[in-house]
Amino acid sequence: MINYIWFFLIVIGIVTAAATGNIDSINMAIVEDASDAVAFAIGLTGIMAVWLGLMNIAEKSGLIKGFSKLLTPITSILFPDIPKGHPAMSAIVMNMVTNMFGAGNSATAIGLKAMEEMNSLNKDKKRATNAMCMFLVINMSSIQIVPLTVLKIRADAGSLNPTEIIGTSLIATAVSTIVGILCAKTLEKKE
Length: 191
Hints:
By secondary structure, the chain is mostly helical. Helices cover 77% and strands 0% of the residues. The longest helix has 39 residues, at 23-61.
């Protein structure tokens, strides 16, 4: 479906540019935006490499296990169907911590691992469990302590103080996460 939407948007843009005599602007936009995208991706790759390295160090040093112990009271309430000590719980915590520190792109692999581990507990493989749904809600809303991608975009755009949005980002993401959790808990199916 999304492919059709993108195709439709591109066709509308080309037709509009042709109708208004601005077809050259399409070529300029493609060339300029493609080079901007490559430069942004390379810059973001550097930030992600640093955070992935830090997350690996945190995991090997036991810091993730420490966070896991701190988050255990919360995660046991949010994910009551996952047994204590199951690998899904450590993957969930790692995903949450990675998202909190703004490395959402690198959290994707950890999130996939968490879903795979939760699916190993799933009796009906064609239907998501309550824990899987809750994880998706938390993963998508994710409290952001350090929103790295946004900070990078602001710095690249020439912001004098790219970090000034940290407080408002923290409040907004905390509220969205709390509302998401409340909605997910309200809509959970009792089995």
